[in-house]
Amino acid sequence: MQRIKCTVAYDGTPFAGYQVQPGKRTVQLEIEKALREIHKGEDVKITASGRTDAGVHAKGQVFHFDTGLSIPEEKWPTVLNSKLPPEIVLTWAEKVSGDFHSRFSAVKKEYRYCVYQNQAADPFKRHFALHYPFQINIEEMRNAAEYLIGEHDFTSFCSAKTEVADKVRTIYSIGIEEAEEEITFSYIGNGFLYNMVRILSGTLLEVGRGKYTADDVRGMLEAADRGAAGKTAAPQGLYLWKVYY
Amino acid sequence: MQRIKCTVAYDGTPFAGYQVQPGKRTVQLEIEKALREIHKGEDVKITASGRTDAGVHAKGQVFHFDTGLSIPEEKWPTVLNSKLPPEIVLTWAEKVSGDFHSRFSAVKKEYRYCVYQNQAADPFKRHFALHYPFQINIEEMRNAAEYLIGEHDFTSFCSAKTEVADKVRTIYSIGIEEAEEEITFSYIGNGFLYNMVRILSGTLLEVGRGKYTADDVRGMLEAADRGAAGKTAAPQGLYLWKVYY
């Protein structure tokens, strides 16, 4: 058996998220269906770096699987893409050793959150960015982001439904870039809790609008209570951008 | 009665084109449905600058309608957008005199056709540009475009199903811009025949790949035969960009 590591981009719009769920169309379901076809009916399970929710996109999700087929690594994208729907595109594949694991071997992840501020909604962006037609104070958001960088207990910044006990994570950097009425947040960290990037983005946007100050964000972290932080920003602005190994 | 001129953007992906067709979801149907609601059940017919096909987009389609309501012109976008689905967004509205006509008063139109050349398909562009992963000679396409500019009989460059008798049109300019593996064609002319921009774009791309020379394009015009020109490029790359009055 050979382990194959794949990088995949997907438009999350038509999917009920990444992970298989009974009766739902998911990204994992489509990829496993394609692999089953390639393996002549044999079930092939894939393991990804993590889940993404309904409507969330990926530019660089990573998954691995084991195969008995002797397809050269550089052929896997063509072979899989020919069986996949156009919303899912394999961009890279390589052979890895059997101890590589998409989830446990990951050392860092990058997520991006995209916002556009134009007064009128844009029909071409509705599935790919959050419409936020308000005056935003970028400097105050950057000041708030400074408090979030580093190792913290992010209990206030994850869904109350989060099942993991240890909510301490490290954010290495938060970039906030503005260009032509678009704002892009980029977060690099050692791991992210359930809904964490959406809550961070929703909170920073509310800082930008003046509902909270940068100092308030420090208090939110200390509160360790989901009710203390801002809103969960909508899924369509979120992209799993890159997984680092 | 007051005539209102509106500019509208739409993502053509989910529609069976602009024009009302029995049993189909179209852009005109959605706008007339919204207007009927605003006019308390009264039918309001809209007239656009022209049709767009299934999957074709608009950044600046123009239509007009007559209303007895005394809504200020600057309020119409908000009023209509609140009733329209998110794929259709009114970007401008103004009062015009009763002799203004979206179709007959138009003096020029601009269409754009978008192509991306990346080797792998891009799931985020699949509805918004043509995937054309080939080496393209931009200079040869520009040379070919020179033959197309001006007043010509465009019989070779419209669908054989075109019903209008006079196939003479004037193209004022053809721009071909390349940036980051994307090519954008922009056409400004006094009018365009059925499928004309898609056939022009398909033919120019085949010139870019070397199937035809620029000189061949001159011959295609002279042939006055749809069979002489290149392929009809796919609808998702096409945008009705602007209508000039």
Summarize the structure.
Two copies of one chain form a homodimer. Chain A has 245 residues and is α+β, with helices and mostly antiparallel strands.
What does this structure look like?
- Two copies of one chain form a homodimer.
- Chain A is of the alpha+beta class and 245 residues long.
- Chain A folds into two domains: 2-96, Pseudouridine synthase I, catalytic domain, N-terminal subdomain (Alpha-Beta Plaits), CATH 3.30.70; 108-244, 2-Layer Sandwich (Alpha-Beta Plaits), CATH 3.30.70.
- The first copy, chain A, is built from five helices and ten strands; from the N terminus they run E-H-E-E-H-E-E-E-H-E-E-E-H-H-E.
- In chain A, strands 1, 2, 3, 4, 5, 6, 7, 8, 9 and 10 form a ten-stranded mixed β-sheet that branches.
- In chain A, a hairpin with an 8-residue loop joins strand 2 (47-48) and strand 3.
- In chain A, helix 3 (138-148) crosses helix 4 and helix 3 packs parallel to helix 5.
- Chain A starts with a strand and ends with a strand.
- In chain A, 36% of the residues are buried.
- The model of chain A has no long low-confidence stretch (mean pLDDT 97).
- The interface between A and B is medium-sized, with 19 and 19 residues.
- Chains A, B: GO terms for molecular function: RNA binding; tRNA pseudouridine(38-40) synthase activity.
- Chains A, B: Pfam families: PseudoU_synth_1.
- Chains A, B: InterPro entries: PsdUridine_synth_cat_dom_sf (IPR020103), PsdUridine_synth_TruA (IPR001406), PsdUridine_synth_TruA_a/b_dom (IPR020097), PsdUridine_synth_TruA_C (IPR020095), TruA/RsuA/RluB/E/F_N (IPR020094).
- Chains A, B: It catalyses: uridine(38/39/40) in tRNA = pseudouridine(38/39/40) in tRNA.
- Chains A, B: Formation of pseudouridine at positions 38, 39 and 40 in the anticodon stem and loop of transfer RNAs.
